[in-house]
Amino acid sequence: MSEADLHRGGVASLEMRLTHNGAEVHPCADVFVLVFDGHFDASLILVDRLWDEDLAGFAPSGFVVGFPKKNILAFCDAKSDVGPVQIQRIIEHVGGGDHPTATSLYYRDPVLRDWRSFRETDSRLN
User: Fold this and answer.
1) CB of 101 within 8 A of CB of 42?
2) pLDDT digits over 64-84, tens only?
3) Confidence of residue 33 (pLDDT cuts 50, 70, 90)
């Protein structure tokens, strides 16, 4: 099995769990927190359908996402003035400890459907 096959299989399994169990979106000031199962919440960044279809109405200008731990994923619209700063504060507040994942913010381009470093696309946090 190739690395690509393993990745596709893992994402397909995650999509099945998402379809079966669902996820909840909770507003939190100027950002949203995505709640899934308490274990693989951050992994939902890999499910294209979630961002391109299910959550598209939350961020028509593209998503800015932070996922500092396996069970925390926060996002906002890329054009939000304060959302990215609030997500960075969430990362700083809960980062480290058990199951850390990423300390950076990521931007999803709605046309290219890919993730890249938010710092490369925006100067609000620099």
Assistant:
1) yes
2) 999 999 999 999 999 999 999
3) very high
E-assigned strand segments in 1-101: 24-28, 31-35, 63-69, 72-77
Q: Which residues contact 107 (CB under 8 A, 6 or more apart)?
A: 62, 63, 64, 65, 78, 115, 116, 117, 118, 121, 122
Helix (H, G, I), strand (E, B) or coil at 102: coil
**Beta strand 72-77 pairing with 114-117:** unpaired
Query: pLDDT class for 122, splitting at 50, 70, 90?
Result: low
pTM: 0.87
Strand partners, 31: 28
| Neighbour count for residue 52 (Cβ, 10 Å) | 12
Question: Where are the domains positioned within the chain?
Answer: 3-117
